[in-house]
Amino acid sequence: MPMIPVSEPLLGERESEYVAECIKTGWISSAGRFIREFEEKWAAYCGMKYGIAVSNGTTA
Hints:
This protein has a domain at about 30-60. The chain is an all-alpha fold. It is extended and about 45 Å long. About 0% of the residues are buried. The chain contains two helices and no strands. It has helices at about 15-25, 35-45. The protein starts with 12 loop residues before the first helix and ends in a 14-residue tail after the last helix.
């Protein structure tokens, strides 16, 4: 049976560009363009007014 890596990152070209942008701009935190965009899109997807991104299920 082939092993399925659970901690190995799988980044496509677009994801790699986004990571590079975060590093270049210094936005490696819980704020910034990508977090705000994710929260807005997630809230819209869920039919809610607000969405808040957290780092893991414990902080949720």
